[in-house]
C-alpha cells in the first residue's frame, strides 16, 4: 500500500477513536498538517530502522544498526527478540515511508551471561565503543520515542531500565530512563517514565500513556557535566522539561536501549530474586538516534 494512503487511513482511524466532544483533536494525528520532525544536527548514531529492514538484519554486523551479539539472552538471536508492530503512525523523527518502529521483548530466555536476576534485551549502537566513543564526548542528545504494547505490557510492580548510558568501567550509569517501581524509592509512582541521574535521584517523570507516541530527548554535556530532558507527545515538537541540571557524566561507556527488568524480593538484583514465569513483555521504540548538540544544536 502507498505510504501516504496508509498514513491517512491510520490518522482517520485514530481520529475516530480518540475524538471526544470537549477535546480539541491533537494536531499530531494529522500527517498533512504536521509533517515529520526534521533532524537539524549531525547524526552520530542512527537507530532509525529502515522500512525495508528484516528481523534477521539484527543478527549480523553487516546488516544491523546495532551490536549483533549483545546484550541479550545467551540462547536468543535478536531476530527472536525484536518484533515489528503492525499499523502504527510514524514516530516523530521517523518518516513513514523510510522508517518503521520496532518492539524489544523479554521472555524467560532473556538471561544474559549468568545474570539470573535480570531479564534483559539491550541494543547498543554500532560504533558506540566502550572507550573513546563519539557518543561520550562534547554535547550529545539521545532521542527515542516509546509506545506501550497492550498485548505485552510491562509489569509495573517491577523496576525497568529502558535506556541508559553506562560507564566504560561498568560501575555506574550516568543516567537511567526507567519505568515501574524503583527499588528503594516507593515514594515514586510506578506508572511513570522517569529520568534518574547518576545517583538514582529522579530528575523528571511523566505518566505512561497507553495509546500515543511519547518522545524523549536527553541532552548530555560531557564537558560541563549537565543533563537536560526534552519531551513531547504524538507529533508535537519537543520542549525542554528540565533545566540543564548538574550530572556527573564522566567515565565514557555506551548507550543501551531496550528493556532490563529487575527482580523483586532480593538485595542482589543481578543474580537472584523473583521474576514471574512465562514472561512475554515488550516496548515499542521509534525515532531513535544520537545527534551532536555542539553549539546548542537540538532537533525538536
Ligand atoms: C507482576 O509482578 C509481581 C511481582 O513479581 C507478581 O506478583 C505478579 O504476578 C505480576 N503480575 C503479572 C500480571 O504478571
Automatic annotation (TrEMBL):
<feature type="domain" description="Glycoside hydrolase 131 catalytic N-terminal">
    <location>
        <begin position="43"/>
        <end position="294"/>
    </location>
</feature>
<dbReference type="InterPro" id="IPR041524">
    <property type="entry name" value="GH131_N"/>
</dbReference>
<keyword id="KW-0732">Signal</keyword>
<dbReference type="Pfam" id="PF18271">
    <property type="entry name" value="GH131_N"/>
</dbReference>
<feature type="signal peptide">
    <location>
        <begin position="1"/>
        <end position="19"/>
    </location>
</feature>
<protein>
    <recommendedName>
        <fullName>Glycoside hydrolase 131 catalytic N-terminal domain-containing protein</fullName>
    </recommendedName>
</protein>
Amino acid at each position: 500500500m502507498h505510504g501516504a494512503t496508509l498514513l491517512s487511513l491510520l490518522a482517520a482511524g485514530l481520529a475516530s477513536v480518540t475524538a471526544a466532544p470537549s477535546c480539541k483533536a491533537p494536531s499530531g494525528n494529522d500527517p498533512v498538517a504536521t509533517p515529520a520532525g526534521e533532524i537539524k544536527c549531525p547524526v552520530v548514531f542512527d537507530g532509525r530502522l529502515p522500512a525495508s529492514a528484516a528481523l534477521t538484519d539484527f543478527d549480523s554486523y553487516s546488516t544491523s544498526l546495532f551490536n549483533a551479539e549483545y546484550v541479550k539472552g545467551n540462547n536468543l538471536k535478536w531476530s527472536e527478540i525484536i518484533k515489528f508492530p503492525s499499523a502504527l503512525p510514524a514516530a516523530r523523527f521517523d518518516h513513514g515511508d523510510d522508517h518503521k518502529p520496532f518492539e524489544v521483548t523479554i521472555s524467560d530466555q532473556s538471561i544474559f551471561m549468568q545474570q539470573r536476576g535480570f531479564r534483559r534485551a539491550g541494543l547498543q549502537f554500532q560504533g558506540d565503543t566502550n572507550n573513546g566513543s563519539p557518543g561520550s564526548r562534547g554535547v550529545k542528545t539521545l532521542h527515542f520515542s516509546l509506545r506501550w504494547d497492550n498485548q505485552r505490557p510491562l509489569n509495573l510492580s517491577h523496576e525497568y531500565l529502558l535506556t541508559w548510558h553506562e560507564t566504560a568501567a561498568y560501575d555506574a550509569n550516568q543516567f537511567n530512563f526507567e519505568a515501574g517501581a524503583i527499588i528503594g524509592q516507593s515514594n515514586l509512582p510506578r506508572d511513570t517514565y522517569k529520568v534518574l541521574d547518576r545517583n538514582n535521584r529522579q530528575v523528571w517523570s511523566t505518566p505512561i500513556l497507553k495509546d500515543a507516541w511519547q518522545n524523549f530527548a536527553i541532552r548530555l554535556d560531557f564537558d560541563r557535566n549537565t543533563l537536560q530532558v526534552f519531551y513531547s507527545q504524538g507529533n508535537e515538537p519537543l520542549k525542554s522539561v528540565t533545566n540543564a541540571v548538574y550530572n556527573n557524566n564522566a567515565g565514557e561507556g555506551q548507550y543501551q536501549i531496550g528493556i532490563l527488568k529487575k527482580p523483586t524480593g532480593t538485595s542482589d538484583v543481578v543474580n537472584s530474586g523473583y521474576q514471574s514465569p512465562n514472561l512475554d513483555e515488550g516496548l515499542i521504540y521509534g525515532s531513535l538516534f544520537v545527534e551532536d548538540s555542539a553549539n546548542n544544536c537540538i532537533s525538536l
